[in-house]
Design brief:
The complex is a heterodimer of chains A (364) and B (307).
Chain A lengths: L4 E3 L7 H11 L3 E2 L7 H10 L6 H15 L4 E4 L6 H14 L5 E4 L8 H8 L8 H28 L8 H13 L5 H17 L9 E7 L1 H5 L7 H7 L2 E5 L3 H6 L5 H4 L12 H13 L4 E7 L3 H17 L3 E6 L5 H32 L1
Parallel strand pairs in A: 1-2, 1-3, 3-4, 5-6, 5-7, 7-8
Helix pairs in contact in A: 1-6, 2-3, 6-7, 6-8, 7-8, 13-14
Chain B lengths: L1 E4 L5 H14 L3 E4 L5 H10 L6 H13 L5 E7 L9 H13 L7 E6 L7 H11 L4 H29 L6 E5 L2 H4 L6 H9 L3 E4 L5 H8 L9 H13 L5 E7 L3 H13 L5 E6 L5 H19 L7
Parallel strand pairs in B: 1-2, 1-3, 3-4, 5-6, 5-7, 7-8
The chains are: A alpha/beta (364), B alpha/beta (307).
Chain lengths: 364, 307
């Protein structure tokens, strides 16, 4: 169907590469989903089953809002946990609500292969050529990598910017410029230009700053609204934030030998993102981070099952772990209080470590 | 050497298989008792707060077995040829191992991977090898156990068939076996239904292969094998029952979606969605069951509910 208006649920800032993929590769219009707000969540949870995990509610609300802004074709991904069944139920709910849209469900594939994805997406535009997609794909994938690199740099530095708001402003410009990219050459040039601009932003980092790693469930970690913008909160406290989980690290370059790395703690793969969570937490603990924050939506089975393992890692390496479980009703005050208490704790712990280190040298 | 088997989760599905296998090989085993308040309390204490109720019950049973046997059998399953399973079953071995790490727990693993060519028999032979039993003996024991399992399944199906000919409203109870047969979770609901004069029939008692095949009539992308059996049973039995009860526990991942699909797609029969969290009052449940049966009575009878 030529002239269809496609959309995919909002996740972080990945709408930029998706837009390039659909407009350049499939030659269809892409509707950028409106930013996730309280209304998105209210809409989503109103029409969702009560005890389903929050990402279902967010993406359903997001679908409704994108239909309102003109989308007529929706795409939902599949996954190895409950995500594998999101699509069918969301399509049913939207149909019951009377929305007449086409729903392309990427779930239910025997094996995730690019060709299978292509054959399902081919119905978007039957005239699409594999050649065009093959031409756009390297641009899209590289764009995802560049975005992730930039955001990683921001997370580690934004808390120490000399002039407030400069990082955020440059990042917003970067994202809006990305949407105009149509060739790899142009993308590379633009990235180099922005990398320089980010590096030129003055930061005053102490010699030994507090470092906190974020681990957890796919959606909640990557969708800032759903985790109450925790990265911003941490940055405001002057903390270096380390977050491994993004599309590049998890989907484009999946970690290898993860089973061996977590061997002392688990014997079998525990399903979905739990293994990445455990292996990453172990690495942060070994690197001597000051704390770990575990994020998930309420009732996320794989991440709940990772928690006893994380607790053991916390005990063995004496590293504090703060567990957050987000639902549609999470109170902002409760969230902030727990975060502040955590900050006080790792701050005191670090101070006392410094002191013992100093007194150690004096006595010698 | 004594093996402990937690009376929870997959025990209810595999009890004939496991018990016959151990008996045939002359291995002593101990099954934890029926779930009671103390087991639930212990399980809830050890489990992560937001784990599902049956997994808390499972940990309670494991805790009960600690110190009473040499090894505890933890059954890990990563999927069947007919579909995947909830990640809880992928993780359960390591959850138990990590939760009770400080209590010197010794686990006996029984692991089935869906994509590995070796099937159930190989897993049992490995189990036998652990007890220094010869391969042939383990195989024979497995075959005997498999036969016992088949007999038990056929017996169940025959008994269920008789229920359809009894008087009273036939109510199809859709839910996991480990919930329905658990004395603390689902059993009281079934008992109360019977006391109210209804005849509960179970979606879990069904020719499994046929059910998996039939499930596709209701839903196309359902990934989980046990849920496929349940949905297929709904397709197979729906014409023969007066209403359905979807019995699930809080917070069940697969059921949170599957039950919603069922409620949206079954328009011709009354459906009651019953979610148990272990803190419910039996009086509240009784009221809901009564009004559910009233609805059926009013639908099938006249305006006064007379048949």
């Amino acid at each position: 169907m030529a002239g269809c208006r496609v959309s995919f649920p909002q996740l972080g800032n990945y709408h930029a590469p998706l837009e390039v993929l659909f407009t350049m590769g499939f030659e269809v219009e892409y509707i950028v989903p409106p930013p996730v707000t309280n209304r998105t969540l209210a809409l989503g949870s109103h029409h969702s089953p009560e005890s389903v995990c929050a990402p279902f509610k967010y993406t359903l609300g997001n679908f409704i809002e994108t239909i309102e802004s003109g989308a007529d074709t929706l795409i939902q991904a599949g996954g190895v946990c409950r995500l594998g069944y999101y699509g069918e139920l969301q399509a049913q709910i939207l149909a019951d609500l009377g929305y007449e849209v086409r729903f392309i469900n990427l779930a239910g594939m025997k094996k995730l292969s690019p060709l299978e994805v292509y054959s399902r997406l081919k119905q978007l535009n039957p005239k699409v050529s594999l050649k065009r997609i093959a031409k756009s794909l390297p641009v899209v994938l590289k764009m995802v990598e560049y975005m992730d690199e930039v955001e990683d740099y921001i997370r580690k530095n934004v808390g120490f910017a000399c002039k407030e708001g400069l990082f955020e402003q440059t990042h917003a410009e970067f994202l809006s410029d990305l949407r105009t990219v149509r060739s790899r050459n142009y993308l590379d040039r633009m990235y180099r230009n922005y990398r320089q601009r980010f590096r030129n932003i003055a930061v005053s980092k102490p010699k030994n700053p507090l470092r906190v790693g974020i681990v957890g469930e796919f959606y909640t970690v990557m969708a800032p609204f759903s985790n109450h913008f925790i990265e911003k909160e941490l940055a405001a406290m002057g903390i270096v934030v380390d977050r491994w989980l993004n599309i590049s690290n998890s989907l484009l370059h999946p970690p290898k030998k993860i089973k061996e790395r977590v061997k002392p703690y688990t014997r079998y793969p525990m399903g979905a993102t739990s293994m990445a969570t455990i292996s990453r937490a172990l690495e942060l603990a070994k690197k001597g981070y000051d704390g770990i924050i575990h994020l998930k939506s309420f009732g996320c089975t794989p991440e709940v099952d990772a928690m006893p393992v994380l607790q053991n890692i916390s005990r063995d390496y004496k590293i504090p772990i703060l567990f957050f479980s987000f639902d549609t009703q999470t109170s902002e005050t409760g969230f902030k209080t727990r975060l502040e208490a955590f900050y006080d704790m790792i701050m005191t712990k670090k101070a006392s470590q410094r002191q013992t280190a100093c007194s150690g040298t004096f006595s010698r | 050497m004594k093996i402990g088997i937690p009376r929870a989760f997959l025990y209810y599905r595999y009890k004939e298989l496991w018990e016959t296998f151990f008996r045939e090989l002359g291995i002593e085993y101990l099954v934890s008792p029926e779930t009671g308040q103390d087991i639930v309390r212990a399980g809830s204490m050890y489990a992560i707060d937001e784990s599902c109720l049956p997994s808390k019950v499972y940990l309670g049973h494991v805790e009960w077995l600690l110190g009473k046997c040499d090894y505890i059998l933890v059954h890990r399953i990563a999927g069947y040829s007919t579909g995947t399973v909830c990640t809880k079953f992928h993780a359960i071995y390591d959850v138990v191992a990590n939760t009770f790490r400080d209590r010197q727990i010794k686990l006996l693993s029984f692991n089935i991977e869906p994509n590995v060519a070796e099937g159930e028999m190989a897993a049992f032979v490995r189990l036998g090898k652990f007890f220094k039993k010869k391969k042939v003996r383990s195989m024979l024991a497995y075959l005997a156990a498999k036969q016992a399992e088949r007999n038990a399944q056929l017996k169940e199906l025959r008994e269920q068939e008789l229920l359809f000919h009894q008087d009273g409203f036939k109510i199809l109870v859709v839910g996991h076996r480990y919930n329905i047969f658990d004395k603390f979770i689902g059993k009281p609901v079934l008992d109360r239904l019977q006391e109210l004069g209804a005849v509960p029939v179970l979606a879990d008692i069904v020719p499994r292969k046929e059910a998996v095949f039939k499930a596709a009539e209701l839903t196309g992308t359902l990934p989980w094998a046990p849920e496929k059996e349940q949905v297929g049973a709904v397709v197979l039995y729906r014409e023969r029952v007066d209403g359905l009860i979807l019995l699930s526990t809080f917070p069940c991942g697969p059921d949170s979606l599957v039950n919603e699909i069922l409620m949206r797609r079954l328009k011709d029969k009354p459906v009651l969605n019953l979610v148990l969290d272990g803190h419910q009052s039996m009086v509240g449940i009784e009221t809901r069951l009564e009004s559910f049966l009233d609805i059926i009575r009013f639908q099938e009878g006249d305006a006064y509910g007379r048949m």
